[in-house]
Amino acid sequence: MKVMRKIIEIDEEKCDGCGQCVPACAEGAITVQDGKARLVAERYCDGLGACLGECPRDAIRIVEREAEDFDEEAVEAYLEEQEKHQPAAAACCPSQQVAVFEPGARFPSAEASGGDSALSHWPVQIHLVPPTAPFLKGADLLVTADCVPVAYGAFHRDFVQGKVVLMGCPKFDDVPAYLQKFTDIFKQAGIRSVTILSMEVPCCSALPGIVKKAMAAAGKNIPVEEVLIGRRGAILDRVQSAA
Residue 80, CB half-sphere, CA atoms under 13 Å: how many? Predict the structure, then answer.
């Protein structure tokens, strides 16, 4: 039933899909689709606007219009369904909040760990990074399997400096979702180059294929370097392909 009430409105022109509004909505009424924050269903939005203060681009506002009435029972059922069927629902994770780090900034905890971090941004997990994240624009991309930073001791020194890192596991994660995410990134972000780090183990071999398939789906031809890392941390192979 539709009633006249307050509900959020998202300005797609302003929204950059950073997803910071998503965890602020306890009802799960907002998700990021196709690089934009979107209202899942009118009946899930209570119109209180807890998400407004989280948007860095002032893209969300409260309007009063005719809309489906807020349905608390429907929200509970929706959240239960999300929890059951979408364990990788990164959209509800505070770790999705996008951040760009000041180059050269040092922090006491990093110094205490015995080495500087070369990481320039957050998040790094493939599922958590929106294709419209500002740090992706014109970036040199480093796509790494989860196990590489553990096996290769000089990971930051040799690979992270000057690159935008995306990491994941082609064995345990959602490969079709990876393919779509990389396709969207290659379409939108103007990526300059891609370095792919994978382990010698067979389950890692899918990672370069995912990236290249996404590149083809996006209609892009970007220089790629593939680096194969051994389980004891040695570089076993290094192959470059020009655009």
Answer: 6
Q: Specify the DSSP element, H or E, that contains 99.
A: strand 99-100
Q: Is the pTM of this model over 0.85?
A: no
Q: Are 185 and 134 in contact (CB under 8 A)?
A: no
- Cβ neighbours, 10 Å, residue 117: 14
Backbone angles phi, psi at 215, to 5 degrees: -60, -40
Residues 6+ apart with CB under 8 A from 202: none
CB of 35 within 8 A of CB of 188?
yes
| Gyration radius of the chain's alpha carbons | 20
DSSP H or E stretch at residue 7: strand 2-10
Q: Cα–Cα distances in Å, from 204 out to 74, 106, 108, 126, 224?
A: 41, 33, 35, 15, 17
Give the model confidence (pLDDT) of 212-228 as tens digits.
Answer: 999 999 999 999 999 99
User: Which pair of structure tokens corresponds to residue 164?
Assistant: 């935008």
Structure tokens at 197: 């780090």
**81-110 burial, b if ≥16 CB within 10 A, otherwise e?**
ebeeeeeeebbbbeebbbeeeeeeeeeeee
Pinpoint the alpha helices (H) of 90-174.
108-112, 148-151, 155
- Least Cα distance to 190 among 120, 135, 145, 240 occurs for 135
Q: What is the DSSP-derived secondary structure letter of residue 209?
A: H
3-state secondary structure of 135: helix
Max Cα–Cα distance, the chain, nearest Å: 65
For 14-64, the pLDDT digits (tens) are: 887 777 788 778 888 988 777 788 899 999 999 988 888 878 889 999 999
